[in-house]
Design goal:
Homeodomain-like_sf, 6-stranded antiparallel β-sheet, globular, DNA-binding, Arc Repressor Mutant, subunit A, 10 helices, DNA-binding transcription factor activity, HTH-like, transcription
Length: about 270
């Protein structure tokens, strides 16, 4: 296979994103998304880390990331990756789940990997419909059947085992980062909010969230920058408005997390408006 190809579509009927990466060698650092990611490997192998567990993923495997699940991956033996995924915002997942189950909740996928899943073909079919910009109701029908089957087979309730007091302190820190992401933030500030010393904060935050406070902050900033780019804001302005020190710093983080440059991501929505 030749040069890397990265294709993204936003489906306005389903209100979800579809990514297709072909011939990818890029290593993705530890990060998370605010939305669900449901993807599958068309070819290639990767070493995946998710919530501090290690996996080897390959052709035919389905990948699940719940919102805020931290994850990282890298190639094995420099093998190229062909990968497709759907990105589904929580409000869309909640709406569809309620229609399917009659219950108002967000499903939690128990494992990030379903090896050689039979559901991969249905996921592939839906993804290709989005890539082909199909507009008839077969696409929506396939979407509902897919989510129904994935929820029934791969999701389960997750017990809340973290100490309530410590978890609340970490939630307070997360909330602060989500509100003040555009400002200069010091570790001392976060430690005061959590009523912990700096080391205890770093240890507890990483244990509970599976990601460091700094990586959490940078991911929040990237997610906020995405929203601005979707509305046509220039990459430089998006960088400044979300707390990055310069456009280069912003571009490096954005490419590392999303797999596209800020300009490429912005162009998706400009083209769709046309």
């Amino acid at each position: 296979m030749g040069q890397e190809e990265r294709t993204v579509r936003f489906d306005y009927d389903l209100q979800i994103e579809a990514y297709r990466f072909e011939g990818i060698m890029q290593k993705f650092p530890n990060h998370f998304h605010e939305y669900y990611v449901i993807g599958f490997i068309e070819s290639g192998q990767r070493r995946l880390s998710c919530k501090n567990e290690e996996y080897v993923i390959g052709t035919g495997d389905i990948i699940f990331f719940n919102p805020l699940d931290n994850h990282a991956c890298e190639s094995i033996d420099n093998e190229k990756l062909d990968y497709r995924c759907l990105n589904i915002k929580p409000e869309i997942m909640r709406k569809v789940t309620k229609e399917i189950t009659g219950q108002d909740y967000l499903p939690s996928f128990a494992s990030p990997v379903a090896c050689r899943s039979e559901k991969a073909q249905l996921l592939h079919n839906l993804h290709q419909m989005i890539m082909d910009e199909i507009t008839d109701f077969e696409k929506e029908e396939t979407f509902y059947f897919l989510i129904q089957q994935l929820i029934e087979e791969y999701s389960e309730a997750i017990e809340d085992t973290e100490p309530r007091a410590i978890k609340q302190e970490i939630e307070n820190v997360c909330h602060y980062l989500e509100v003040h992401y555009a400002e200069h933030i010091a570790l001392d500030d976060l430690a005061k909010i959590a009523n912990m010393n700096k080391y205890s904060l770093l240890r507890s935050f990483t244990q509970i969230r599976g990601i460091t406070p700094y990586r959490y902050l940078q991911t929040v900033r990237i997610n906020e920058a995405k929203k601005r780019l979707e509305h046509g804001v220039k990459p430089l302005d998006a960088a400044i408005e979300t707390g990055f020190v310069d456009q280069s710093h912003f571009s490096n983080f954005f490419m590392g997390f999303i797999g596209l440059t800020p300009g490429q991501y912005r162009d998706i929505f400009i083209q769709n408006e046309k």
